[in-house]
Amino acid sequence: MTDPDAVTDPDAAGGPPATAETSSLPPATPAPEPARRRHARHAHRALLYLCAVVVILLLIVVIVLSAANARAVELDWVFGSTETSLVWVVVGAAVIGWVIGITTAAIFRFRTRPRRP
């Protein structure tokens, strides 16, 4: 009968399998991280936190503006008009601006990437 806790080593030639309790190998310790890489990692983390705070603040501004402008307004189109809450106009404008910003960034990234030989 085999021990379910036994750890077998495929490189071991014929020896009894070592169990997790009797293994005498120390746990592997990672190599120390260079100071420059650690500083770069911390700076990147700080930048991510800053971006998260800016996004949260912008969302709060959009929510406050939307709540302050809850009255109904009339939207005039080319062929007719509609009446809707100003909240939806503000949210729609924010979403349209976001999509335009992402599209513009993608186009600039595509057009400014290095050309293949």
Query: Which ranges are low-confidence, i.e. pLDDT below 50, for 5 or more consecutive residues?
Result: none
Cα gyration radius (Å): 30 Å
Task: Output the number of helix runs.
Answer: 2
Helix content bin: 40-55%
Secondary-structure element sequence? EEHEEH
Q: What's the layout of helices and strands?
A:
Blueprint: E1 6-7, E2 18-19, H1 35-68, E3 72-77, E4 80-85, H2 86-111
Antiparallel strand pairs: 1-2, 3-4
Question: What does this molecule look like?
Answer:
The chain has 117 residues and is an alpha+beta fold. The protein has helices at 35-68, 86-111; strands spanning 6-7, 18-19, 72-77, 80-85. It is elongated, with a radius of gyration of 30 Å. The relative contact order is 0.06. The model has no long low-confidence stretch (mean pLDDT 80).
Characteristic key phrases:
two-stranded antiparallel ribbon, two-stranded antiparallel sheet, 117 residues, alpha+beta, single chain, 4 strands, 2 helices
Q: Could you provide a short overview of the structure?
A:
The chain is α+β, with helices and mostly antiparallel strands and 117 residues long. It has two helices and four strands.
